[in-house]
């Protein structure tokens, strides 16, 4: 195989196929990027626990998320800043708090 034919073989999935609709090409690109970057989706966890506790002196809450799959448990701590007024507002979260 020559270098030119190898390059063509690598680029073929990236090129739009003749007669392919734009939406179909975009879906194909998204799937290819997702599969390449993230890999396959894991199955849903066996157990998911979430707890929230107010942080003293702050308008924030500590959020702890525990994910259990088989015999393995993974815990993530985060902080969630809560607005002091009702209505739409941006979400501010800090992971590994």
Helix content: 25-40%
Q: Segments where pLDDT lies below 50 for 5+ residues?
A: none
Helix tally equals: 2
Biggest sheet statistics: 4 strands, antiparallel
Shape: flat
Structural account:
This protein is flat. It is built from two helices and four strands, in the order ααββββ. It starts with a helix and ends with a strand. It has helices at 3-11, 22-37; strands at 47-54, 60-69, 72-81, 92-95. The chain has a four-stranded antiparallel β-sheet with strand order 1-2-3-4, with no helix packed on it. Helices cover 26% and strands 33% of the residues. With 97 residues, it is of the alpha+beta class.
Topology, pairings included?
Elements: H1 3-11, H2 22-37, E1 47-54, E2 60-69, E3 72-81, E4 92-95
Antiparallel strand pairs: 1-2, 2-3, 3-4
Name the features.
97 residues, alpha+beta, 4-stranded antiparallel sheet
Short description, anyone?
This protein is an alpha+beta fold.
